[in-house]
Amino acid sequence: MDGRTTEKAAKPTLTPAQRKKRQAKRNAILRAVVQTVFFFSMPGAFVAGFSGAKSLARAIGAGQPLSWTGFTAALAVLCVFTILFGRFFCGYVCAFGSLGDLVWRLSGLVQTGLLRRKKRLRLPERFTPWGQKLKYVVLAGLLLLSALGLEGRVNSFSPWSVFSFFMALRFDLSGYWAGFAVLLLIVIGMAFKERFFCQFLCPMGAIFSLLPLPPFASLRRDPENCIPRCQACRMKCPVDIKLEPDGFRNGECIGCERCADVCPRSNLTRWDRRLLHGGAASVLIRAGLFFALGVWLGLCRFL
Asked: I need a surface site. Which of 81, 113, 275, 301 has the fewest CB within 10 A?
């Protein structure tokens, strides 16, 4: 008994910084697990949601009444979920986003490991604010083509159609080689810019960033409680933003919550994180809720 007591007493006590680092690692593992589950169970969620937006544009362009379909239901659920919980879909559910995270990590391992580079090649940060505006052009262009009934002329260029083929283990790309080329270029971009597609080209990301998010739905930072010149949240952010109390550019936040995990003062929070006293429980509850909604919408490929 005395030996056990001595051994327990000799166990070093972690500092607050060490506990924070350990918790951040656990949250990163949890996020990877959640992303993997959704990547294989609901790879078509992105396509279903944006198909709803295109179907609405087609109806408006043709002067037809708007109809409630499975695609418009998927779009509505994604938008309502985002309004309540921020862009959880982007940070944890979207297969394209998860693919981008995987490519970014592999690129880092290749550059710093195999190629022995001390500093990895990446797209300069100064291009990010301008590049993030491109997705609104993509959104407007695709919706306009749908409204004019011209969508079919560009289907062969669709990278997400090719991605869907691959996820269904279909490798016959007849008629979609242009889409494969676009997908390949996107993957190359993912290797040199974290969340390349999400930041610069994703039309659903553009829709989410335009939603009128209530103050309680997004992560908030109190600058008065920040450590002077800390910048931990900004350096960890994959989309190069620093959450501001006035909400400026906060719509670009993809909801990965890595900033909250590394904040030394736990100064970034949202209503569900405050209610549940942490991020892990919040992630699991949101993931469970979204999975249930996905099953209800018929998005789960296994159920």
From this structure: 113
